[in-house]
Structures are given as C-alpha cells and as structure tokens.
Write a structure and sequence with these properties.
This protein has eight helices and 24 strands. It is α+β, with helices and mostly antiparallel strands.
C-alpha cells in the first residue's frame, strides 16, 4: 500500500472515518482525555471510561472550542483548542494506521458542517503534527461531502432533485441537490438549511417524545418536499440509525421515491473526494456549486499583445479557500481597477470598480501594480493592490490598498 486515503467527518458530537471507498469505517465520540500524571491521551469511549474511573480529565465540543479560540486546563497546564484537536485527530488516525499497517497518509479530506477561516486555519495547522503534508490535506463542507457521495452513486439515483435529512445530536438539517445539464457543461448545485424545528435526540427515548419528533419531521418533510420531483431521498445522522419511531415521516418520504439510509455519508463523501484528488483527471467533470465553493466567476478586461482578453481571476466552482490569483498589471492612464462578477444566473452579472486612491499618476504606461485576489468565504473577495514602481525610472512609492468586495 502506497498510503492511506482517508475521509473524516468531524463534528462536536461524534467523528466518523472511512478509508478508501468505504472498505472500513469508524465512529467515535469527539472527546479527548489526558490521563492524570501521565502523558497519555485517549479518545472516544476510552476517554469516557477514563474520566468515569477518575483517572483522566475529559474535554468535549472540540470544534466549538477551536471556533471560539478557547482553551482547557488539564493538570494545571492550559491547552489551546488546536492542541486538543490535534491530539484527538492523531489518535483517530492511529486507528486507520494500525488497521492497515502503514504510517503514510496519501490523502486526507476532512468534512465539517461549515468551513470558516478559523477552523480551516486550525485544521491546516494540525497537518504537520498528524504527519500529513499540507498539499495532501483538504477541508470541505458537509454540503460538498453530500454532493460527492451522491454523484458517486448510479446515475438514476441523481437524475432529478435529491433531498437529504440529517438528524444528529448537533441538530436537524436539510440538504438539496440538483443537476443542470447544459450544452457546454453540467452544473451541480447543492444547498444546506439548518431547520429551526430541530429537537434533542433524547426525546426519542420515550413514546410520547418519539411521537412528537415524528410529527415535527412529518411537518418539515411536507413543507420541503411538496410539489417537487425527487430521484431519491437520503437519511443520515444518529437519529436515523433506527426509523421505527418515525412512521408517518417514513410513509411520507417513501411515497413514489427511492429512500436510502447511510449513517457515514459525510465521511464517505469526503473519502470519495480524497480518492478523486489522487487521480490525474477528475471523475467528476462538473461545475460544482455549494457551501465552500464560489458561485460566481471574477474576471477583468485586459489588453494583451494589442488584443482585448478576459483575465480570469477566480472561477465559479472553485473552493473559496483555494481560489485566488496574483498578477502584475500596467495601467494606461487609469486610476481604477474594474472587476466583472458573473453569477450562475447571467442576468446578475455586474461590474465593480475600485478607485486607486493614493497611487501615483504616471503617463506612458509606467504605472505597474501587483494585484492579489483572495477570499474570506464564498461571498467575500479580498483585493490587495500595491505600487510596484517601474524599473529604475520610477521607484515604488509604497502605495497600497486592501478592500473587501461582496460577490
């Protein structure tokens, strides 16, 4: 084996891991424990057992801890969220390494509910501690995992719209995906909605609570699925490990639709993405638009060899945290930069002009600037411009500006 290919679904309640294309999977609570007076870390059920025995200190809700830049004190030592999460992920990956007898991880894709900058930076920072090269670690959203999982199934499963209910200790979410086939390209659109009707899974422990939960789900299903043609409905999350309690809801979703239950769906979707990233040519030749990816393209009109061209700075379907560009431009008696932002709906195409305040004015095409494009999330682009000077004739003035642009 030339290295493990791992998909990992990281949530506050529990973490799931899949190797390859589903050959082996693990599910364990997202908790870490340090043994008292020992440099030994435990995770999952072993962590709970140690804490219960009184010989270890446990920390949970690790994702939330990282997002709020929190800390936890164990044995008089303060640990940051990133340190604790690193210890947890290292022990989780040890399970796969021991199972397959190899230390090398060829590709690791981590799926989280939503990719934000703080969590992304933390997970990328964990890579070196985990023994995973930076270029071999990717982070995607649950919505993107859902998309990759569905697209990896037989085509009849995703001919029309696809819906999914995720019922977990972290809440109730609904996902929807549709495929738009065009002359030049196929576009896949996926969305996620956190439902306000969410309920604690503890209510399923009583008959009255289970009936209430069934009514809540039935109401959500009636509202979300009405008047739409679905190829299939997926159910995932701990709440759907058993469905006997949700009789009315199951009767609703199973009427004239294929229904599939898969409790490790997000981890499997991450694993499918990991496998695809090892290929020379993608097995998913689509423009994929979802949480974590741009839904607009960003271009500029430029002259190159006296020909007007469109300079592409970012393309719809790129991961926002991987998108961006750095280019040098020579301005011709122009004190602004203009960006063309094109959404999936061509009618929403717009131009955004940024005035270069504080930059020198020079004639004869002697104002050269460095333009850097980046993104804070799917909707927010950062533009940084700096005066580069022009050889020995015009030294740089040091003029620069940074601005955020809403797509």
């Amino acid at each position: 084996m030339d290295g493990l290919i791992v998909g990992l679904d990281l949530c506050d309640a529990y973490t799931q891991m899949v190797c390859g294309q589903g050959e082996k999977s693990w599910t364990l609570p997202t908790v870490v424990c340090k043994k008292k007076d020992e440099d030994l870390w435990l995770v999952g059920e072993a962590a709970y057992a140690s804490a219960l025995a009184g010989d270890g200190v446990i920390v949970d809700k690790l994702v939330k801890l990282v997002k709020k830049d929190g800390t936890a004190t164990i044995g008089g030592i303060k640990y940051g969220g990133m340190q604790l999460l690193s210890h947890f992920l290292q022990k989780v990956l040890e399970l796969a390494r021991e199972e397959y007898g190899t230390e090398m991880i060829k590709r690791l894709v981590i799926s989280v509910a939503r990719v934000d900058q703080r969590l992304l930076t933390c997970l990328q920072g964990c890579g070196e501690y985990l023994g995973v090269e930076e270029r071999s670690l990717s982070v995607i959203s649950h919505t993107e995992s859902f998309m990759y999982y569905v697209l990896s199934q037989k085509r009849e499963v995703w001919n029309n719209q696809i819906g999914m209910f995720d019922l977990s200790p972290d809440g109730l979410c609904y996902y929807e995906m549709k495929v738009q086939r065009g002359m030049r390209q196929t576009t896949v659109l996926a969305e996620r909605e956190e439902l306000e009707e969410s309920f604690s899974l503890d209510i399923l422990k009583t008959g009255a609570g289970a009936k209430l939960a069934d009514r809540i789900l039935f109401s959500c299903g009636s509202r979300l699925l009405q008047k739409k043609a679905f190829s299939s409905i997926f159910l995932t999350g701990k709440g759907f490990e058993e469905t006997d309690w949700a009789r009315e809801f199951m009767k609703l979703v199973c009427t004239r639709r294929r229904v599939y239950g898969e409790n490790t769906l997000f981890a499997q979707g991450a694993a499918y993405r990991a496998v695809d990233l090892t290929r020379e040519k993608t097995g998913y030749p689509y423009v994929c638009i979802c949480e974590g990816r741009l839904d607009s393209s960003v271009t500029m009109k430029v002259l190159h060899k006296d020909q007007e061209n469109q300079l592409v700075l970012a393309e719809a379907g790129e991961s926002w945290h991987e998108a961006g560009k750095e280019v040098e431009l020579i301005l011709d008696q122009q004190d602004y930069l203009e960006f063309i932002i094109t959404a999936m709906d061509p009618k929403k195409k717009k131009a955004v002009r940024l005035v270069l305040e504080g930059f020198p004015r020079r004639d004869g095409k002697t104002l050269k600037v460095l333009l850097k494009i980046g993104f804070l999330d799917e909707r927010t682009m950062t533009v940084t411009v700096r005066d580069q000077g022009f050889g020995d004739f015009f030294p740089s003035t040091g003029a620069s500006m940074r601005q955020e642009v809403m797509l």
